[in-house]
Prior knowledge:
It contains three helices and 40 strands. The chain is mainly β.
Amino acid sequence: MGVSAAAKRQAKASITGLGDGPAWQQPVQAQTFSEEMLKDAQVMRLADLTKLDASVSDGYNTVGYIDTLTVRGFVLDNAYNYRREGLPISAETRIGLENKAAVEVFKGTSGIQAGVSSPGGLVNLVVKRPEGRVRSATFSVDNTGDAMSAVDLGDRFGERRQWGVRVNAAVERLNSHVDDSEGHRRLAALAVDHVFAPGQVLEAEMEHSFASQPSIPGFSMLGTNLLSANSIDPSINLNNQPWTQPSQFRGTTATIRLKNDWGQSWRSTVTYGAQYLKSNDRAAFPSGCDAEGVYDRYCQDGSFDVYDFRSDDESRTTRAFLAQLEGSIETGRVKHDIGASFLRSVHFSDLHMASFNYPPVGVGNISGNFPDLPEDPSLQYPNTDRHERSSEITLRDAMQWGNWRAWMGVRHSQIRRQAIRADNSFVTPVLHKAVNTPWAALGYTVAPQTQAYVSWGEGIELMYAPRNTANAGAPLPLFKSRQTEIGLKGQVQGTRATHHWSVSAFRISKPEGATTPGDVYVMDGTSQHVGLEGAWQGRRGPWTWAGSAMLLDAQRKDSVYAANLAPTNVPERLIKLSTGYTFKTPASITLQGDLVHEGRRWVDVENTTRIPSWTRMDLSLRTTQPWHGQTVTWKLAVQNLFDKRAWRETPNSFDHIYLLPMAERTITASAQIDF
């Protein structure tokens, strides 16, 4: 984490929709990670957020593929749990961060904030806007051969400086410790605004990104045996055939927004956004062991079946219109901060036929030493297209009287959805559903700048039957998730020291699905996650500290068709610590140390095998110095300082157990020139 992490992170996020009060008054757990903190922590992609907060862990993160995050033990749905400028987007792509001013993470059930979403939380991307003169260039390289260059330019123009422009661009040669994983990436973004009058601003921005890189599959269990992470070479690429092609992700996203300040604390915002994604998902994909009749792991001797998987020309379109009105009124001794919004959004995914055919094209081995296999690009596997529309109205009221505060809100959602299999083997009827997701909280100021609170809320998910089931792609009934949370938050601000802290306990329950003996996927039982979180950030003189921890008890309950056990790939505890010291030298040298600890995770759904806990140390050195009228910031960072070998995560993805190794020691050098 960055040396002044306490100053660069805020224990709140605008995505909460609870107004602009200080962090200690927010009855939720949320944080904003600034651009500077992301850079200091070497956060290059969304998957790297796992090093910043104990509530966030890996969902399925590998080289060359999209990023998937888990919050409070629930995997965030890439189609529903991500926002950009407060508008829904799809994260089923590679998202560049060079034009992002901050990343916000909201933890817990988010029915009032988002309506449809997995109950773990939300991630919101805040785009850089014109803010005056900006001239910055960044260059970085690491010991794997990955190299990146980026520029950030901005200024204001006009007699009243009413026009603003911000340009961001980046190119990167992608590489990793894994063999034959070279690729490339680029991003270009433009943001403009015009101030018509004080309090009246029109903003517009657009970004285009492209990434191309081979995706790297994971290892797996060998029959009933768990491989030791020390026994494998993490540089082995199991997706390495003469016909292997890179996975590719192309995206264009834009928004336009009109903000008005009407005076007397009333303001409105109207935003329209659109996102267009294209992707080619490809791999020589290792999956199962036909020879032993098991399909969720590799063979006991280390061999596995290889499939030629190709899903080209996938298209995803998201469009959204959001109108918001906020203001304050007083009724007697009670002050009300009122908000209302209307959101209209549509999402279309068109995925076509794919290649993922049985029988497999051959057999591979975890040693990586296996012959070239024949390809099978014939398009016989039908993907499922989704067409979804929703109209949502939100009302909220934040009340304050004396030391008491109360929040009430509700979101009413009208949802229309349909699923169509690419080979037209089924077309579901258009499904209509109206649902309300309420949320409420009560807080009391127990001491100066210290508040205790309790909250309760609901959320909903749009769930579809997964691959390899008889009803694959079919929409499932809507069910609600629920969360209860209690917490205590506070801050201490002085001339020499600043501290922000919080502790909370939560209980989340959500409906789950399972496959019947007839291979039909149905709703079956619930998942219940009970956890305790704590976070603290502080600064005193040249020292800074940041730390967070989470203990989690996650269980499956009341299932008829699945084991009532703990979920896979969910750590039982997580600890993230950081400390930094700035030496009093003319060059302002800062030394930063980070510790990331994650507890054991279950590997299989039967809960017979767990990977060990692991701890990783990172170290960084930063110095800033003037140079010919410019300012240069040099950074040297070492991730996985002691070259720890461990299984980083154990995702059960595509009905298969995968083991993803921790990356080897990585040394990154970078320079940022501000002129």
